[in-house]
Backbone:
């Protein structure tokens, strides 16, 4: 909606700040303030310290952050490959086949993630494919949970993609594989980068299914944050949460720069 008068614009900005600050900004500011504190008995925290961050970037915390990054990067890459392949296949099918694939890929998102974790645990706790107790079952669960977002993103981009480019390449004698690799995928690159960033962010914050699956030697950072706050170490958990947010935002910033370059090209 376009607003032309100055008073209406100021009113919308005021409404935005009233809704944004309490619902979104204030909780994050509270976590940030708590991460630098040792006590919080009044309206404001007290006992400023950076010791929580010193422990958050070494030892078990650093290992948990590395575990989360490796899990999210691996799951995002797998989800991007599977989701892109499925979206391309669905785009070539009829309406009924496309709806069937849409339902299959959206199903893990339509149910609680703890149900997905339980399903993966039951399915891969027996031979011939025994993954229970390994890091791969965590990666698999994250991949299942985020593939739907890659699939939907690429599917939406394929609908908007102008078929003239593919037709021109085919008319010049290009083979289907060449058209896919040199024409269609480069045009989809901005959507692929956006899907990769979304999958990465969702995987970095996934907790419910991870709690059911992670082995002792593969502890992601969200689980460590939960265990710290569950033991009453709220300030340590706040510092770990800030580290998790910062790591996620840095990767998303890198992905956005790649997307900008792809769009420019």
Residues:
């Amino acid at each position: 909606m376009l607003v032309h008068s100055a008073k209406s614009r100021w009113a919308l900005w005021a409404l935005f700040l009233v809704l944004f600050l309490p619902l979104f900004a204030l909780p994050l500011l509270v976590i940030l303030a708590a991460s630098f504190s040792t006590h919080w008995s009044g309206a404001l925290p007290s006992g400023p310290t950076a010791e929580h961050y010193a422990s958050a970037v070494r030892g078990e915390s650093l290992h948990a952050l590395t575990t989360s990054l490796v899990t999210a990067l691996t799951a995002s890459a797998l989800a991007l490959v599977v989701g892109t392949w499925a979206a391309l296949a669905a785009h070539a099918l009829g309406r009924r086949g496309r709806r069937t694939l849409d339902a299959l890929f959206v199903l893990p998102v339509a149910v609680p993630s703890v149900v997905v974790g339980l399903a993966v645990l039951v399915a891969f706790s027996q031979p011939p494919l025994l993954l229970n107790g390994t890091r791969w079952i965590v990666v698999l669960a994250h991949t299942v949970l985020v593939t739907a977002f890659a699939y939907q993103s690429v599917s939406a981009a394929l609908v908007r993609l102008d078929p003239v480019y593919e037709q021109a390449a085919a008319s010049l004698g290009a083979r289907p594989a060449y058209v896919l690799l040199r024409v269609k995928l480069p045009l989809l690159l901005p959507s692929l980068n956006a899907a990769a960033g979304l999958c990465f962010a969702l995987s970095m914050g996934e907790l419910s299914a991870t709690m059911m699956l992670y082995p002792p030697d593969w502890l992601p950072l969200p689980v460590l944050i939960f265990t710290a706050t569950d033991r009453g170490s709220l300030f340590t958990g706040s510092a770990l949460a800030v580290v998790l947010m910062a790591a996620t935002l840095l990767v998303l910033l890198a992905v956005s720069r790649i997307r900008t370059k792809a769009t420019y090209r």
